[in-house]
């Protein structure tokens, strides 16, 4: 399988499109009223220009490419001290805008190629993936621990390796291995059962989507698991009738939907298969009248937009042949695949829920602070970042912060604990599960 | 073994601001070594982030004792290389001093710190239906630095330069001494005016950070009337445009009265130069007006109609026109992400933007523009020129925004040469460049009265005896 994952050198022309105007440093919308907010977690934390937004990262990239900057511990540390949240990219208007996360990750790929990256604490991710096919050093048998309540309740979840089903629920490593967020797969499977959906899981045969490896520059490890997954998806489609892959994990969703398209075989392998986030999948059922809520949750909640279901799903329009502006000019951003309104509509549909928005939302959402390998590489800082987001949530008066990413969920929870906040974290599916009645078919 | 001087300095800086706020790491210094302009990259030796006035005083005392240059930095968005160190030293990053200390909504002034961005200021002012003279810079740019460096904005037609809006200031001198000028010097709570005292604020405005570190600024803010009306015209030449702008400017009804050449009206500016289509006008003008009532707006409109009619009777090519929508947004929805992010300025060229930016008597605009056009086209660069009246009609800003491909050294040098040529033409015609890079400062000083240069040197020596403040930028 061939992969079109660009090197830093291949992105050099894009890198020179940056003017260093610095608009990427903070979020701003004219309005009216005008809205301003900090957008860059490393910029907020470390302050120096190099850390701050894409302007700073582009400076590093230029220096590395020109040879003016040579690898040393501090430089490697600096390029990994970024959550790759794309908040900076959202502000940019120039031709390199669509490539900003790619440029940051290409620097990391170069660090790995030059044997100076990733950060020591992140190397265990790669080792764990090689040993266990997940980044959490979890034995494969643990991957299905979350299914025990279903077995106990005599509602076992179908093993799609053995039985056909049109829907594959791709659980993701975070939901499966990370105890504080196991409620996410539990709620998802519970909802699916209540709705009478014919779905299955890969169980112990599920392997990591590769997102974390890709984010830290470990392209080879990403390719290994991505190729295996693409082959599995194809096989499941052909042999078990799978035509829909549903995932509750924003990282997996982003990886399968976007990173996997860098494979030359993507279209062939994914033909006839749709990848969808659980929330969008449920929203479609809700709109079709197939999912109705009863009872209610008299909660004041606020909603955190994960980067991987938001800005990372931007699609960009380019002037491919130069007939509109000039060749390869960035023209505009298409946010139609970003999950901004869908989770909010679902939240509002739950009886009793009062949604109070934070200041920074949707495409200008402030990152939970754990992405891009930061949670593993810099745990304390990740939690500190999350505390800032929790404080923003607390300022709304909400008692609960809701999201649709187990990774954000975990990190925000750490942030909440860090500052002794009473803010409780929930995934949207956990709320839906609470107000979704059992059906007769189930 | 004796510690190296650099390490001793670093330790001492760390003892002032904390070890996390100072660095000599090359990759960080590198990130401060260049900006948007053609100015050659140069690195500072240290980067320090200060958060208090006391820290700045200690840093200045250390720098003065050790004779180390200090370069004050807020956002680095100027296009004159003003924060690129000429002789290394301490780059003093003030972005974390970003508080709006006071907003007096009754008396219409604010006290701000250096790191307050236009975006932040805009959000705060809007809550109180107030406004500032927003420049067409990035929203992340510093309100403070723009004002100190004689920046202009969307209210310059009415109130003049943003430096004329300064009401008081607090400054750390290169020796570390803390001084105040304006009303806050007499009563620490009052930041309403620099007058009627001697205008000592002039010691720090337009000095490009070479005379001290300004740490607080009082600035006048203005009410925001609800009704925006932009009058737009086009014409075939600068002579006609000047006549129209002088005529309309006489009535003082505009917040901003600006003309832009066809090339500057494009989003983005064409790079390299491409000829203007024959059926397109060479000049557009937008006259931005704000009114409190419909009747007031109608009165302004009546004046504008009269001016257009008068100009047309003279045989002028002026005619009412529709200004390109995105370009108009960029000029009226400020702070703007369109012009501000340089989407319009250098998106097509890639990476670089500089200007011959000048204050030029309006009566010379046509003469200068016609020469600039020849020079720029000869260098395959678009004559993307802007002219703006400042508070009346007698003079204004004349500048050409010149994008270039920064990845290519030849193209960068081509732009530099063209800009310098343009600058000489303007200087010889009676204009003066603003926010000048060193290349420009040299040209200014060549023409300067010896007494002016002598006074400049004496004042500089008085304030900065060891020449540590952003040395080299004045080219004296």
What is the rounded distance between the termini of chain B? Answer: 40 Å
Q: What's the architecture of the largest domain in chain B, going by CATH?
A: 3-Layer(aba) Sandwich
Number of contiguous helices of chain B: 15
Question: Which stretches of chain A are poorly predicted, pLDDT < 50 over at least 5 residues?
Answer: none
Structure write-up:
The complex is a heterodimer of chains A (442) and B (476). Chain A is of the alpha/beta class and 442 residues long. Among the domains of chain A are: 1-117, no CATH class; 123-289, Rossmann fold, CATH 3.40.50. Helices cover 42% and strands 11% of the residues of chain A. Chain A is built from 20 helices and 13 strands. The mean pLDDT of chain A is 96. Chain B folds into three domains: 5-93, Uridine Diphospho-n-acetylenolpyruvylglucosamine Reductase, domain 2 (2-Layer Sandwich); 100-223, Uridine Diphospho-n-acetylenolpyruvylglucosamine Reductase, domain 3; 227-433, 3-Layer(aba) Sandwich (Vanillyl-alcohol Oxidase, Chain A, domain 3). With 476 residues, chain B is α+β, with helices and mostly antiparallel strands. Chain B is built from 15 helices and 21 strands.
